Structure to design on (150 residues):
């Protein structure tokens, strides 16, 4: 499905508005939630929600309300994924205090996940502490041995 440039901009702004609720306040608090995008084909709106189904933002998508009953979730998956990728490339998704990893999912009217659109993870996670991994092999071997005996 082809969306106009204005609609694409509206979707990106709606996601930015939703993420503003989780702007990094510098207090160290990191909420745990995923962001859910729910298209409403009847009203021609995109709802952006958190895990508690709280609507964080909404935006009109006129292309969905044009009376085309053939529009499906598969049709909107690509344009939504592309909008999120642009936001990721521009660093917008890194300015949030959400605990990583978190994901953007496409959900249906029943709040069931249709597709995972984007997973935001911290690429720079490094294990720099040798003490953390010390003895791991022995612990895993003991665990596996115990499993095999039972």
């Amino acid at each position: 499905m082809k969306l106009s440039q204005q609609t694409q901009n509206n979707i990106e702004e709606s996601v930015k508005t939703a993420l503003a609720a989780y702007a990094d306040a510098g207090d160290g608090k990191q909420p745990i939630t995923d962001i859910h995008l729910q298209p409403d084909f009847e009203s021609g709106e995109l709802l952006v929600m958190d895990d508690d189904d709280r609507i964080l933002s909404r935006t009109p998508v006129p292309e969905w309300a044009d009376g085309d009953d053939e529009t499906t979730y598969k049709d909107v998956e690509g344009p939504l994924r592309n909008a999120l990728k642009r936001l990721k490339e521009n660093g917008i998704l890194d300015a949030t205090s959400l605990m990583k990893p978190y994901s953007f999912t496409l959900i249906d009217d029943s709040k069931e996940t249709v597709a995972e659109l984007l997973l935001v993870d911290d690429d720079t996670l490094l294990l720099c502490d040798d003490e953390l991994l010390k003895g791991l092999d022995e612990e895993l071997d003991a665990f596996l041995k115990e499993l095999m005996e039972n």
